[in-house]
Amino acid sequence: MAAGKHTSIVVIGASGDLARKKIFPALFALYCQRLLPDPWHVFGFARTEFTDATFREAIAQHLTCRYSPDGECDLRMGEFLGRCRYVSGAYDARDAFLDLYLKMRDVEQHQPANRMFYLAIPPSVFLDVAHAIGDAGLVACGQREPWSRVVLEKPFGKDRATSDALAHALAQVFVEDQTYRIDHYLGKEVIQNLLVLRFANLVFEPIWNRQYIERVEIVWKEDLSLAGRGGYFDQYGILRDVMQNHLIQILALVAMEPPARLDAASIASAKVETLRSVAPLELAEVVLGQYQAGEVRGQSFPAYVDDPTVRKDSRTPTFASARLKINNARWEGVPFVVTAGKGLDARMTEIRIRFRPVAANMFCRDDVYTCPEPNQLVIRVQPDEAIYLSLTHKVPGMGLRLQARNLDLQYKAAFSELIPDAYESLLLDILRGDRSLFIRHDELQAAWDIFTPLLHTIDQQQTSPQPYAFGSSGPGSSSA
Ligand code: NDP
Ligand code: BG6
Question: Which residues are catalytic?
């Protein structure tokens, strides 16, 4: 990037899990690729007491040398850390933000500067921070340089009403064009490829509809426990933590109509249109579960409610499977079965498109041949990014035997390029002002409208989730 105005990147909640494990390593990766707009500085802010030196030590533990040739990595780390500063204070303390302001003005040499504020904090303190940033005079108005942008992590609220109230309050400080609602799944390489796969190839679009597709499955699994995040997770549950955002975004990209253009507004409009066609979920269309004690690959895990950060009588679901209906001409009658679970048997995210069987298939007419399985297109988001299409073939040899085999694209074998972490792509987009991978306000509203009636029913009826053993495949998918 060409040298221009100074850029200050402020990470609020800099002592936290997301900041240390994802945001600072992603910024370092961008620095190593010379993608940070020079001159720049990073500021960490949180309540935890750090000096600049101890803050740099904490960050350094998670930086990796993926993009630096061996000999240069230490040098690059030293340069990067040298531009990181830290300010500690309470999230509603005007004085602390004034202190931040003074430090920023100092490195910005009292010139107008571009500023990114990344709110890597629990949603309960978003508003305090937004007001404190505004009151300290840190935010520049307008879209042109110097710009001020705010990055908000999900979950944005707990239902439609709380999300709207939060958006309304935040809008007093940051207008919509300055607001980047991040869903890191949109930055994952395979998810970014969905648009290209669907619309840059001739073969998919003609069959991407109810006439040829019988069912779509989107599965998200983790074989992890809460790792200290129970205080947050227990208030939100799997429906709000993963399904309402990450999986609904995937659904929107799989199901949407072709956007008019490739710009952020056109893509968001195409997604909104689709999400507004999704029928609000009802309890009968959902399976809820909560993990009990169990083991994965020989390691034992306690039950969800035995996690010290979780209430003993918690009914919060750690697993959900929902059968969604999209009421439009392309998808009517095609179930989208979306499943998410923690404490399962593997870590994996995939999209499975199940095609209809061949009509009047000649290989199924008598018992001579094994009737072929319908085709499936599998898009594996993680781990080991891949896209494969299962097709029926003649097994080589005498006679006619049929077997399914995959046309298989494994990213690691097919591409020599490094696969960037989702946060690297998304942070670069924010710096460049590209909002196409971020959630627009009306998109968020449409996503909440699908889940809000169900969430209220679960709360009112105090619905109990079904137990499943940690390390199992969960209590089953929704077939209602
Ligand atoms: P943490 O629980 O690590 O919190 C971040 C920081 O916020 C903490 O270091 C702490 O800093 C401060 N904090 C924690 N709890 C409170 C509280 N109750 N009141 C005030 N301050 C508090 O969260 P994460 O870093 O995991 O997540 C931050 C945000 O990012 C959340 O919105 C989360 O949903 C989202 N997210 C996280 C992901 C992850 O992988 N961790 C992935 C995707 C989204 P201090 O005490 O120093 O002030
Ligand atoms: C976060 C959720 O948004 O995504 C976590 O809050 C979850 O509960 C995480 O573990 C999964 O992200 P990834 O990129 O590791 O699949």
Answer: 246
